[in-house]
C-alpha cells in the first residue's frame, strides 16, 4: 500500500526527517529515567493493578454469595451486535402491556407519540391514546376533568400515587415498569434522566436483583411461577417464584396461554406473551437501541479507515529508524 | 504525474479551494456512507424493522 500511495503522491509523503523521528522515539523510551523514578512509577503501576484485581475479586465474591435462581440466557433476536429490535414483537408487547400489566404497573415515561414509527402509525397511536381517559386541568373553575388522550400524553397510571398502589397490592409496590426495566438494564440510562432519583430510592430495596437482571430476567420471572417447595410459607397474597429474591412475590402470575388475543394473529402462548413484553420493555428502556447499533456499524467503517491510516503513518515515521545501520569499528 | 499535479495546482495549493474541497468531499462522503450503512442495516435486519411491518400506504 505504501508503494502505491507513494507513487500517487510522489516521494514527499514518504519522506520523514531523521531528527524528528529520533526525538519522537526517545520520548517513549524508559532508558534515560533515573532509578528512583523507575521504582516510583513501577510501584504505582503495581498498586493500581492490585487495586483493580481486588475490586474485581470482591465483586465476584458478592455474586457467589447470592442464592437466587439465575435466569437462563435466551437467544434474543436483538442480542447480536448489529441486530435491531423485532418491531412486530414490540407491537405485540405493547398489546400485552396495555391489556395485562397496565392494570397494576404504570409506565409514565413513555408517551403515545413515542410509539409512532416504532410499532404504530400515527393514526393507530392516536386511536390508542383516545381510548384512555386522561385527567387534565384545572379548568377555569379549578376542577380537574377527564378528556380522551392525545398523542402527547404519557401512558396513564393505574394508581394516583405510590401509597394507593401499595394499599391495593398487599403492601408491595408494582414498580413503574420503564423505571424498573431501566434499572434492570443499567442504573442510569440517559433517555430517562427524569427518573434517576426514583431509581436510587428503589435500588435500595434489592440492589443485587436489579443490577444483575435483563430481559432474560423479565422472561424468567413471568414464566417461572410454580408451587412453593416444602418448608416455604407464603403469607396471604404472596406467590412463589424462584427467580424473585426470597421467592415470595406479591405479583400473581399474570401471563397464561391465550390470556389476550394478538391483533396480528400470533398464537398467544404464555411464553410468546413473555417474550413480547420483554422485547417491549427493552425498547422502553432503550428507545435508541436500533440507532445505536447502526452507529456501531458506522464507527467500524470510519475507525477501520483511521486505523489503516495510522498504521501507514507509523510505518512511514519509523522507516528512517528501521533502515538505520549501526556499525562497530574496533580501534586498530 | 499529470493528474496529481493538476490536482495539486487547481485544488490543494490554495487554502480556499482546499477548504472547499474538504467540505464538498465531506458532504458526498457522508451521504453515500450513511446510505450504505442504512442499506446494510436494513439487509441484516430484514423482517424485523418498522419499515417491514408498516401497513402499506394504499390502505
TrEMBL record, chain A:
Highest rank taxon of the organism: Eukaryota
Domain Cytochrome c residues, every copy: 88-267
Function: Electron carrier protein. The oxidized form of the cytochrome c heme group can accept an electron from the heme group of the cytochrome c1 subunit of cytochrome reductase. Cytochrome c then transfers this electron to the cytochrome oxidase complex, the final protein carrier in the mitochondrial electron-transport chain.
Keyword Transcription regulation: no
SUPFAM superfamilies: Cytochrome c, Cytochrome c1 subunit of cytochrome bc1 complex (Ubiquinol-cytochrome c reductase), transmembrane anchor
UniProt record similarity statement: Belongs to the cytochrome c family.
Membrane-crossing segments per the record: 39-58, 295-313
Main location per the UniProt record: mitochondrion
UniProt keyword terms in alphabetical order: Electron transport, Heme, Iron, Membrane, Metal-binding, Mitochondrion, Mitochondrion inner membrane, Respiratory chain, Transmembrane, Transmembrane helix, Transport
Name the record gives this protein: Cytochrome c domain-containing protein
Localization: Mitochondrion inner membrane
Xref: PANTHER family: CYTOCHROME C1 (PTHR10266), CYTOCHROME C1, HEME PROTEIN, MITOCHONDRIAL (PTHR10266:SF3)
Pfam families: Cytochrom_C1
Chain segments annotated as coiled-coil in the UniProt record: none
InterPro entries noted in UniProt: Cyt_c-like_dom (IPR009056), Cyt_c-like_dom_sf (IPR036909), Cyt_c1 (IPR002326), Cyt_c1_TM_anchor_C (IPR021157)
UniProtKB/TrEMBL annotation, chain B:
Keywords: Electron transport, Membrane, Mitochondrion, Mitochondrion inner membrane, Respiratory chain, Transmembrane, Transmembrane helix, Transport
Keyword Kinase on entry: no
Topological relation to the membrane, as annotated: Single-pass membrane protein
Major site of localization recorded for this protein: mitochondrion
InterPro entries (alphabetical): QCR9, QCR9_sf
Record bears the keyword Repeat: no
Subcellular location(s) per record: Mitochondrion inner membrane
A Pfam family annotated for this UniProt entry: UCR_UQCRX_QCR9
Role played: Component of the ubiquinol-cytochrome c oxidoreductase, a multisubunit transmembrane complex that is part of the mitochondrial electron transport chain which drives oxidative phosphorylation. The complex plays an important role in the uptake of multiple carbon sources present in different host niches.
Similarity comment: family membership: Belongs to the UQCR10/QCR9 family.
Quaternary data: Component of the ubiquinol-cytochrome c oxidoreductase (cytochrome b-c1 complex, complex III, CIII), a multisubunit enzyme composed of 3 respiratory subunits cytochrome b, cytochrome c1 and Rieske protein, 2 core protein subunits, and additional low-molecular weight protein subunits.
Record's protein name: Complex III subunit 9
Organism: Molorchus minor
Amino acid at each position: 500500500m505504501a508503494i502505491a500511495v507513494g507513487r500517487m503522491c510522489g516521494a514527499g509523503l514518504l519522506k520523514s526527517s531523521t531528527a524528528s523521528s529520533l526525538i519522537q522515539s526517545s520520548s517513549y523510551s524508559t532508558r534515560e529515567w533515573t532509578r528512583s523514578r523507575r521504582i516510583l512509577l513501577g510501584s504505582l503501576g503495581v498498586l493500581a493493578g492490585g487495586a483493580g484485581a481486588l475490586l474485581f475479586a470482591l465483586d465476584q465474591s458478592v455474586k457467589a454469595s447470592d442464592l437466587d435462581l439465575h435466569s437462563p440466557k435466551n437467544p434474543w433476536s436483538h442480542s447480536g451486535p448489529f441486530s435491531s429490535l423485532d418491531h412486530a414483537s414490540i407491537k405485540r408487547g405493547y398489546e400485552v402491556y396495555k391489556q395485562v400489566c397496565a392494570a397494576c404497573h404504570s409506565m409514565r415515561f413513555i408517551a403515545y407519540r413515542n410509539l409512532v414509527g416504532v410499532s404504530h402509525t400515527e393514526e393507530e397511536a392516536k386511536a390508542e391514546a383516545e381510548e384512555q381517559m386522561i385527567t387534565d386541568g384545572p379548568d377555569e373553575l379549578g376542577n380537574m376533568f377527564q378528556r380522551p388522550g392525545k398523542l402527547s400524553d404519557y401512558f396513564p397510571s393505574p394508581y394516583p400515587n405510590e401509597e394507593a398502589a401499595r394499599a391495593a397490592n398487599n403492601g408491595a409496590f408494582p414498580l413503574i415498569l420503564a423505571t424498573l426495566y431501566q434499572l434492570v438494564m443499567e442504573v442510569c440510562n440517559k433517555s430517562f434522566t427524569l427518573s434517576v432519583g426514583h431509581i436510587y430510592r428503589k435500588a435500595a430495596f434489592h440492589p443485587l436483583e436489579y443490577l444483575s437482571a435483563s430481559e432474560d430476567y423479565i422472561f424468567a420471572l413471568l414464566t417461572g411461577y410454580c408451587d412453593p417447595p416444602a418448608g416455604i410459607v407464603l403469607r396471604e397474597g404472596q406467590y412463589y417464584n424462584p427467580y424473585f429474591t426470597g421467592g415470595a412475590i406479591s405479583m400473581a402470575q399474570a401471563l397464561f396461554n391465550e390470556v389476550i388475543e394478538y391483533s396480528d394473529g400470533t398464537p398467544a402462548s404464555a411464553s410468546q406473551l413473555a417474550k413480547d413484553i420483554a422485547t417491549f420493555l427493552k425498547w422502553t428502556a432503550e428507545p435508541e437501541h436500533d440507532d445505536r447499533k447502526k452507529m456501531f456499524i458506522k464507527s467500524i467503517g470510519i475507525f477501520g479507515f483511521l486505523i489503516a491510516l495510522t498504521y501507514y503513518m507509523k510505518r512511514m515515521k519509523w522507516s528512517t529508524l528501521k533502515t538505520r545501520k549501526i556499525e562497530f569499528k574496533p580501534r586498530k | 504525474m499529470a493528474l496529481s499535479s493538476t490536482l495539486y495546482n487547481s485544488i490543494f495549493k490554495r487554502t480556499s479551494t482546499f477548504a472547499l474541497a474538504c467540505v464538498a468531499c465531506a458532504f458526498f462522503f457522508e451521504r453515500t456512507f450513511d446510505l450504505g450503512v442504512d442499506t446494510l442495516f436494513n439487509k441484516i435486519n430484514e423482517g424485523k424493522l418498522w419499515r417491514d411491518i408498516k401497513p402499506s400506504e394504499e390502505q
